[in-house]
Write a sequence for this structure.
């Protein structure tokens, strides 16, 4: 493997920071929660205060505690669904792409069917058939979500595999007598890592959305706290209408932040696989002092300032800024 | 425009105009003058110098061959000269003067490509300097018919031409490179590698440039196709008189095609000579090694060794001569001092090797001496058996 | 070399033919067309010999190599490995992989960028049943065999850390790991720098001379074939057009196509080098009438356009597929068993 190093891009660092924050929240959130999130011990409908940072619900529950406790269920389900869906899409995508023929036809048909069926309604249908007690089970919900979320990744991985299977190193492995499953696993799969990572990020994102939606429309157990259930209770108690923003805005922001974090980290994967993006890692200050343009343009090789002693103003920068 | 010889007439007219006009600025005898040119990859601590201190002149209508292994900097040099080198390539020193003439043969003010801004560059590219790349398949847009490519170029640079004229010009160009005019209606994937490369050459010549740069245009092709294209190029060059820079690793091809050859090694020019002199009497051990790397078609078979070892890491160049570790004639001095490209007494050639410096401690080995080596190595049977 | 023992044929191909069916997309009904990539090629690979196959791209030489390695199935014809006939439709076995190995053209593409050199060598060893404890030692031995020394320096490198020449040596070492008797090399030097090409050729020669492998060397460079080979075969449009033992074919080419190939090689010592203007080799979809080279041939006669020539014996072990030599006797044996003939054995060792 290539040596791992911390990406220099501020975008990626920000993304990593956000995700780290939420992962810590997932792990220690429930312990940090000041109160039992389900306890209806407090004055209902109070705004943010020193005792209740995010106020209380109309049942007198502490919203901040709900948010902290809810992080765990949300993140665990999302991660689980993301992992399972990525594993599914890899198995199906690589097998379809490498084996070809009828296997490919069958598996492609399957993933096309899953792509064509709108995910959310399917999810709702499957979910409504689940026994009620398993609706509070994060693993069951995670599996159900992953079932609707693998198809897109499978298509991308199938296409990648098809371009890899004709590469010489795959042929070389066949020549020495390597078995097919081994070629898929040890020759092709490692080359798919960047795509897999990216696919994982987006399935996690999808899973958060799906889980929150399910909870929001009340299809998961409303007694298990996650960000969606907070929204469910806020909605059913008319919080948006009665201007109780502190009830529904914080979970919304959390969801948006996790999504942003995932997307930002995805930039890092681009930078990681594309060495050309990696090479341009100079700060703008360094660039200016060397007389380099702010961004590299195709068909216009930059010239170091030292190579142009007669030029007062860097013509490149002018040309670039026009 | 219908006359296939149209371009030549125009060129002749231009030439005669040039001789008749007295008060025009005298155009330099060189179309391109490169001085102390250096190119880096990256800046700061991760910088690698890919081309270092290269100077060369390209006479009008002549063919300059640039030879060297991969990583020798030959392509980097030429791409950077035309400012086409991609990031992280950076020009770190030197200048590149382009002396071109306008459509009427009047010399234009010399352009320093290193200092030129984007507008100035755009004005000389394609019209005066054009380039043919190694991979014609990736250079042609797969969704455009060939004719469209020509049309676009002519529309941009020759706005005075109308549609029919452009089509006629494109047909003329295709005929010039030995292709049927009906190929204009084809897509790139419908053509063979050789045909695509011919298209690229026709495109490069579309605006009648004074300098054409060829980056290994025949490396991906078969010998027979390569031969046809080389012959074609030779013919076109004689007809239109453009100067050419031809990059390749195939030294024997260059000897046939080029007037002058520079051999590059680890980012530097190690030898410069006329093609024939370089072939008959190479003066740098690396040139000799390259020439001996091609199994001959005639004579007894005997074992050849090529050049042992591999090119040095540009990020970690040794002290002294860069070639020392692979050189069969290496001396003490080679590990300590770096040789400079110095002119030899005879015939405008230069070489960067301690063996060739007057007062060298060791005697010059016979293979690298001034006398031409045997024109074709016909080893005697005793030699062959050993 | 000591006096030659009687030649042992390791692998023979008899009447190998491969047709590809292509479909022209975009039309309502798919246009099925049959491309005859390799047509009735017979060949013997002999222990301790290098057989060179020379041809342009599209001549079918790579398809031939892949059929010999049995990763492409022939449409018809058979392979005979050490006297045992292998039916053309049978599945490739591990046993066959252990006897016949193929080295691919582009060393950068044929090694997996995510795996170290070690992986490339240890996998074939493990597949072909080397004892677990021996694998490391065997991998090092393989690197030593291809002169990558010291082997420890190379085992844990990634492909991008090696030069093209070194990487091609790794590819050869990978093939050697299974201890094959036949080594097929598909243009092993065409992607490499000029200066390291000879090193690879000399390595192949050494494997042949010292370890008595049967080597098939596929190339488009006739000069390197002359340098290396004991037998040279020229292919055009899927057919063998000329073959000879030793260098006879290059020194006195009898087929117009061979003559064209030789004239096209850049040769600074020969100012008269010239070429016939011609199209690229045609791809024959239906069995062509007459000689395949006739449309490009400067000597084409009436008969060339109507009847495919038989093989004529133009010299000792030198066969030409051309009507120009109709005065010579027809070659009797379909494949003359090459004898070990090397003019005074001048090449080496």
């Amino acid at each position: 493997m290539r040596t791992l190093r911390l990406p220099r891009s501020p975008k990626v660092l920000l993304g990593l920071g956000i995700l780290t924050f939420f992962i810590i929240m997932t792990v220690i959130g429930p312990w940090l929660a000041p109160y039992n999130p389900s306890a209806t011990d407090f004055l209902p409908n109070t705004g943010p205060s020193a005792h209740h940072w995010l106020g209380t619900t109309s049942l007198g529950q502490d919203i901040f505690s709900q948010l902290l406790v809810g992080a765990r269920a949300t993140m665990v389900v999302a991660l689980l669904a993301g992992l399972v869906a990525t594993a599914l899409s890899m198995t199906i995508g690589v097998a379809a792409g490498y084996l070809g023929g009828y296997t490919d036809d069958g598996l492609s048909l399957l993933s096309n069917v899953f792509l064509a069926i709108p995910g959310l309604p399917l999810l709702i249908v499957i979910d409504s058939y689940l026994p009620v007690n398993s609706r509070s089970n994060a693993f069951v919900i995670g599996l159900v979500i992953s079932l609707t979320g693998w198809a897109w990744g499978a298509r991308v991985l199938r296409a990648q595999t098809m371009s890899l299977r004709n590469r010489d190193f795959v042929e070389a492995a066949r020549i020495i007598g390597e078995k097919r499953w081994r070629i898929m696993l040890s020759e092709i799969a490692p080359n798919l890592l960047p795509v897999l990572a990216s696919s994982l990020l987006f399935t996690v994102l999808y899973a958060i959305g799906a889980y929150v939606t399910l909870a929001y429309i009340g299809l998961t157990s409303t007694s298990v706290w996650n960000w969606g259930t907070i929204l469910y209770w806020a909605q059913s108690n008319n919080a948006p209408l009665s201007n109780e923003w502190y009830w529904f805005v914080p979970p919304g922001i959390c969801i948006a932040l996790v999504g942003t974090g995932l997307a930002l980290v995805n930039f890092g994967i681009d930078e990681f696989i594309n060495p050309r993006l990696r090479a341009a890692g100079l700060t703008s200050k360094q660039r200016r002092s060397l007389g380099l343009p702010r961004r590299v343009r195709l068909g216009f090789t930059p010239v170091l300032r030292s190579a142009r002693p007669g030029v007062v103003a860097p013509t490149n920068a002018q040309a670039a800024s026009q | 425009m219908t006359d296939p010889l149209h371009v030549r007439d125009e060129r002749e007219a231009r030439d005669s105009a040039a001789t008749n006009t007295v008060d025009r600025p005298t155009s330099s005898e060189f179309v391109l003058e490169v001085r102390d040119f250096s190119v880096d990859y990256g800046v700061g601590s991760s910088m690698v110098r890919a081309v270092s201190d290269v100077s060369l002149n390209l006479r009008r209508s002549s063919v300059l061959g640039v030879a060297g292994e991969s990583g020798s900097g030959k392509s980097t040099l030429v791409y950077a000269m035309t400012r086409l080198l991609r990031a992280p390539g950076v020009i770190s020193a030197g200048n590149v003067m382009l002396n071109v003439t306008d459509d009427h043969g009047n010399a234009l003010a010399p352009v320093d490509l290193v200092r030129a801004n984007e507008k100035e560059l755009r004005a000389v590219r394609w019209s005066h300097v054009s380039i043919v790349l190694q991979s014609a398949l990736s250079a042609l847009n797969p969704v455009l018919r060939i004719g469209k490519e020509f049309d676009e170029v002519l529309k941009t640079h020759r706005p005075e031409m109308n549609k029919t004229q452009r089509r006629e010009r494109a047909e003329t160009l295709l005929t010039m490179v030995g292709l049927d005019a009906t190929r204009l209606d084809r897509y790139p994937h419908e053509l063979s590698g050789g045909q695509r490369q011919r298209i690229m050459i026709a495109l490069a010549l579309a605006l009648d440039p004074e300098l054409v740069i060829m980056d290994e245009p025949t490396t991906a092709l078969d010998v027979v196709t390569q031969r046809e294209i080389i012959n074609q190029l030779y013919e076109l060059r004689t007809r239109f008189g453009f100067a050419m820079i031809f990059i390749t690793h195939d030294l024997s091809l260059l000897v046939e095609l080029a007037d002058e050859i520079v051999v590059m090694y680890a980012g530097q020019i190690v030898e410069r000579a006329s093609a024939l002199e370089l072939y008959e009497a190479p003066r740098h051990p690396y040139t000799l090694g390259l020439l001996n790397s091609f199994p001959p078609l005639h004579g007894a078979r005997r074992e050849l060794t090529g050049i042992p070892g591999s090119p040095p890491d540009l990020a970690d160049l040794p002290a002294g001569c860069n070639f020392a570790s692979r050189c069969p004639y290496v001396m003490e001095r080679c590990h300590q001092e770096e040789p400079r490209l110095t002119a030899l007494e005879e015939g405008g050639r230069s070489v960067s090797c301690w063996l060739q410096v007057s007062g060298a401690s060791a005697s010059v080995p016979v293979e690298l001496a001034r006398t031409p080596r045997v024109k074709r190595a016909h080893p005697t049977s005793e030699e062959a058996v050993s | 070399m000591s006096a030659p023992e009687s030649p042992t044929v390791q692998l023979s191909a008899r009447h190998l033919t491969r047709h590809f069916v292509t479909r022209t997309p975009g039309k309502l009904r798919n246009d099925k067309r049959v491309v005859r990539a390799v047509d009735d090629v017979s060949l013997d690979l002999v222990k301790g010999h290098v057989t060179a196959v020379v041809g342009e791209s599209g001549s079918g030489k790579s398809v031939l190599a892949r059929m010999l390695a049995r990763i492409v199935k022939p449409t018809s014809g058979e392979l005979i490995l050490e006297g045992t006939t292998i039916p053309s439709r049978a599945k490739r076995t591990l046993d066959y992989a252990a006897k016949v190995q193929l080295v691919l053209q582009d060393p950068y593409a044929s090694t997996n960028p995510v795996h170290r050199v070690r992986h490339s060598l240890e996998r074939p060893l493990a597949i072909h049943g080397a004892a677990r404890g021996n694998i490391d030692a065997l991998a090092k031995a393989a690197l030593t065999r291809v002169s990558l020394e010291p082997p420890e320096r190379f085992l844990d490198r990634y492909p991008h850390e090696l030069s093209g020449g070194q990487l091609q040596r790794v590819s050869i070492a990978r093939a050697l790991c299974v201890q094959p008797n036949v080594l097929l090399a598909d243009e092993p030097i065409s992607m490499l720098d000029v200066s390291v090409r000879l090193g690879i050729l000399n390595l192949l020669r050494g494997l042949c001379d010292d370890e008595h492998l049967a080597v098939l060397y596929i190339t488009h460079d006739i000069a390197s074939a002359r340098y290396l080979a004991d037998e040279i075969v020229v292919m055009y449009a899927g057919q063998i057009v000329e073959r000879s033992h030793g260098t006879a074919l290059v020194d006195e080419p009898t087929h117009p196509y061979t003559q064209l190939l030789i004239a096209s090689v850049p040769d600074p010592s020969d100012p008269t080098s010239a070429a016939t203007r011609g199209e690229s080799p045609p791809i024959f979809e239906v069995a062509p009438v007459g000689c395949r080279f006739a449309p490009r041939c400067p000597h084409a006669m009436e008969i060339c356009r109507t009847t495919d020539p038989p093989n004529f014996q133009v010299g000792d072990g030198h066969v030409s597929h051309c009507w120009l030599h109709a005065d010579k006797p027809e070659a009797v044996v379909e494949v003359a068993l090459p004898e070990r003939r090397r003019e005074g054995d001048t090449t080496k060792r």
